[in-house]
Design goal:
- The complex is a heterodimer.
- Chain A has eleven helices and nine strands.
- Chain A has two domains: about 130 residues, Rossmann fold, CATH 3.40.50.1370; about 150 residues, Rossmann fold.
- By secondary structure, chain A is of the alpha/beta class.
- In chain B, the strands form two sheets. Chain B has a five-stranded antiparallel beta sheet with strand order 2-3-1-4-5, covered by helices on one side. A four-stranded antiparallel beta sheet of chain B has the order 6-7-8-9, with no helix packed on it.
- In chain B, a hairpin with a 5-residue loop joins strand 8 and strand 9.
- Chain B is globular and about 45 Å long.
- The termini of chain B are far apart.
- Classes of the chains: A alpha/beta, B mainly beta.
- The interface between A and B is medium-sized, with 22 and 20 residues.
């Protein structure tokens, strides 16, 4: 790793000022305030060891909009990884081909390891149940488009135990003033105790709710996450929870008119498609915001 | 004067080396493991386990011959024996005596409890933990080994 190398691995590593700078930069890109030549001649390696649609494609789109080119790993089956090559060796080799690397990997801490052996900047595109900083930044960006991130109540619903997006977002929100978090999760899928303790250490007020109806009237932001059937002890338990916590237009009648609904997508049954037409539905806009936010990240690490 | 077993001591004095005293009972062998001087090395060591402590209660004690522990080795011992004391012995006399201190960073000693951590794979990487208010945090996956957990199980 060179002395000047700039990586984006985790929101835990980032100061509030750095986050705000990236969000301001993303806003400028979103307004079309760029030449399209910022990353001329640069190549980005897109190394995804897990399936992805939004993250992979929006990083690619962001790179191309700034004039850069993409080098895709392609399917893992067609690479030397199937011959037993370590991630460390793969990263060392690919470092010599490109100007930056975006990595998604099933093991937690993979991006940090990659940054230690890479000779070019590394951006974490999600590692296991760990960090996913670009998703967190675009979540913050989407909230900031609707309201200042200050004195707000943010509800997090769904799989709070294994969902990396909610952990990252909760940490990022802890860096802002007077943000209260409301946890709405089925038994066994609440925030892990170490995350709760970390949030308390950071001075975050964390309120646990038994039902979505209890929480909704207080919220400025409702962040819904996908439930995975395999996390439930049996199909009946999953069906019960899914029907109880499904976001519908009728349920949202008790919410503040200004409340926004976010979801990192893909959704399955958590949000009724009828909600899509409501002004509070910001999840597709949120997905689109992935491009300017990732433009800001790529510009940050390569310029 | 060199004391003998009849004088009430359970392991014989050493001429040169290190004595680690007041180890938490049952952790003597873990200390040996931390120091990497298990069977197969040519280091002579003695472990006394669950002996009566002059401070009251029980303790383990380790003597290592002809080896003076380095600062980072001493710090690692604090993980499992925070109240231990280290004496460097030269010509049968205590030359230096010091308590252990909890290290700020532990590299390659603790196995991360998270089975999905990158350090628990075939990658050529050593585990790295940093001190945290509640214990130690993995620098790779952020998992915490709290003080309530038995850290010896992860060494």
């Amino acid at each position: 790793m060179t002395h000047e190398q700039k990586n984006i691995l985790s929101v835990r590593d980032m100061e509030r000022e750095e986050i705000d700078r990236l969000l301001c930069s993303a806003a400028a890109f979103d307004r079309g305030n760029f030449t399209g030549h910022e990353l001329d001649g640069k190549i980005l390696a897109v190394l995804f060891f897990e399936p992805s649609t939004r993250t992979r494609m929006s990083f690619s789109s962001a790179m191309m909009r700034l004039g850069g080119k993409i080098l895709n790993l392609g399917s893992v089956e067609a690479t030397s990884i199937t011959k037993g090559e370590t991630l460390s060796d793969t990263i060392r080799v690919i470092s010599g081909y490109v100007d930056a690397i975006v990595l998604r990997h099933p093991k937690e801490g993979a991006a940090r390891l990659a940054s230690e052996v890479a000779s070019v900047p590394v951006i974490n595109g999600g590692d296991g149940a760990g960090q996913h900083p670009s998703q967190t930044l675009l979540d913050l960006f989407t909230i900031r488009e609707s309201m200042p991130i200050e004195n707000i109540d943010v509800g997090m619903q769904g799989d709070l135990r294994y969902g990396r997006t909610v952990h990252s977002l909760a940490f990022a929100l802890s860096k802002y003033n007077n943000v209260r978090l409301h946890a709405i999760a089925p038994d066994g899928l609440d925030f892990p105790s170490h995350i709760k303790e970390d949030l308390r250490d950071a001075g975050v007020e964390l309120i646990i709710h038994d039902s979505i109806e209890d929480a909704l009237p207080e919220l400025d932001v409702l962040y819904v996450t996908r439930l995975q059937r395999e996390r439930f002890p049996d199909p009946v338990a999953f069906a019960n929870y899914a029907s109880t916590y499904r976001i519908t237009p009728a349920l949202l009648e008790c919410a503040k008119p200004s409340m926004i609904v976010l979801h990192p997508l893909p959704r399955v049954d958590e949000i009724d498609p009828a909600v899509d037409a409501l002004p509070c539905a910001k999840y597709f806009e949120q997905a689109h915001n992935g491009v300017p936010v990732r433009m800001a990240m790529l510009n940050e690490v390569m310029n | 004067m060199v004391r003998t077993i009849s004088d009430g001591i359970v392991i014989s004095p050493i001429k040169n080396g290190t004595v680690i005293d007041h180890i938490t009972p049952g952790e003597g062998l873990t200390v040996i493991r931390i120091l990497g001087i298990e069977d197969g090395t040519n280091v002579t060591f003695t472990v006394a386990s669950n002996v009566v402590s002059s401070r009251g209660g029980r303790k383990d004690m380790v003597k290592i011959e002809n080896r003076e522990l380095l600062k980072d080795e001493v710090d690692k011992i604090a993980l499992v024996a925070p109240y231990a004391s280290i004496s460097i012995i030269r010509d049968f006399k205590v030359s230096v005596k010091k308590p252990v201190g909890v290290p700020k960073e532990i590299v390659g000693v603790i196995k991360c409890p998270n089975p999905n951590c990158i350090t628990n794979t075939k990658e050529p990487v050593k585990s790295k933990f940093v001190a945290h208010p509640r214990g130690f945090r993995c620098q790779y996956c952020d998992s915490i080994i709290s003080r309530e957990m038995d850290i010896g199980d992860y060494i």
